[in-house]
Amino acid sequence: MNLEQLRSFSTVARLGNFTRAAEHLHLAQPSLSRQIAALEQDLGAELLHRAHGGTTLTTAGESLLPLARRMLADAESVRRELAELAGLQRGRVRLGATPSLCISLVAEVLSAFHSAHPAIELQLSEQGSRRLLDELARGELDLALINTSEATAIDRFSVPPLLVEELVLISSAGAPPVTTLKAITLEAIADLPQIMFSATYELRSTTDAAFRAQDLTPNVVLAGAEMDAVLRFVERGLGVAIVPAMVLIDRPGLRSVRLEAPALTRSITLARPADVAPTAAVEVMQRTITATATAFAGRVGSTMRLAEPFVSRDGQEA
Asked: What is the residue range of 284's domain?
């Protein structure tokens, strides 16, 4: 049994298909099949059910999969730690973040980190919080910037909080203001033409729940958009949208107004595996993220604040 066999097995298990797994691993399919067959022979058990509709795990395969993932993650940690002993001259950081963070906070984080450590390879996964936690659990990420409300299994992760920010209503700076007041009610927003996010967005769930709680039906002119598209549509005057305050930075084509109390907020946390020691490069990335988040809070103003330290069940600050 070797790491290449375990990597092949883990990839087939994740993709459920030998052809796609071979393409992902840049292997010929016969070579991949031989690796799996050799692993099954070595372990004395069939690991995969092969069928025309796809590939599924046997009972033995289900038992091996978490062990294989952990062994691959441990091997990767050793490889990266040894590569970084030369003072961050080599190495890799795999960061995950939600779409709204990728176009704001993460863009500045990666710019600052790359300027200081250009030899470190950076990989980014842009997904929803639940998907990012899954990737983190599988050892595919080192760090993930998530919304805390999505962290349903935080016992498996270290989740130091970063920021708490308000959601605000945005409209085109080229159109008349939607209100002359300092804040706007959800009732008033419901009558305005709105651009809504995709149903997979946690922000969409938050706003939908807020409208339902007040028995309001929003006037939706477009639904299903991604973050960057929502901002562009609003800039062009297609409608208004409720978004995190930080996405307004460096966007002169948009104006914003706060929501009348109670405000809608989201908490941003930095998650990493609790049982895996971070490499030197990952530790530097964590510090870069914290410093950038602090600077962001100062730039955004009253709609964003630094989060209070999260206290775990044993009374320790995360």
From this structure: 93-318
Specify the CATH number for the domain of residue 59.
Answer: 1.10.10.10
| Same domain assignment for residues 149 and 52 | no
Number of domains in the chain: 2
In a domain, 86, yes or no: no
> Quick one: which of 245, 243, 217, 220 has its CA closest to 232?
243
The answer to whether residues 210 and 284 belong to one domain is: yes
Judge whether 11 lies within some domain. Answer: yes
Q: Is there a single domain that holds both residue 75 and residue 104?
A: no
Question: Distance between CA atoms of 50 and 13, rounded to whole angstroms?
Answer: 11
End-to-end CA distance of the chain: 38
pLDDT tens track, the chain, 318 positions: 788 899 999 999 999 999 999 999 998 989 999 999 999 998 999 999 988 778 999 999 999 999 999 888 877 777 766 655 555 667 789 999 998 898 889 999 999 999 888 888 899 999 888 889 889 888 899 999 988 754 444 566 777 778 888 999 999 999 999 999 999 999 999 999 999 998 878 888 889 999 999 999 999 999 988 888 999 999 999 999 999 988 888 889 999 999 998 789 888 989 988 878 888 888 889 999 988 888 877 776 778 788 765 433 334 444
Question: Angle at Cα 253 formed by Cα 248 and Cα 254, nearest 5°?
Answer: 45
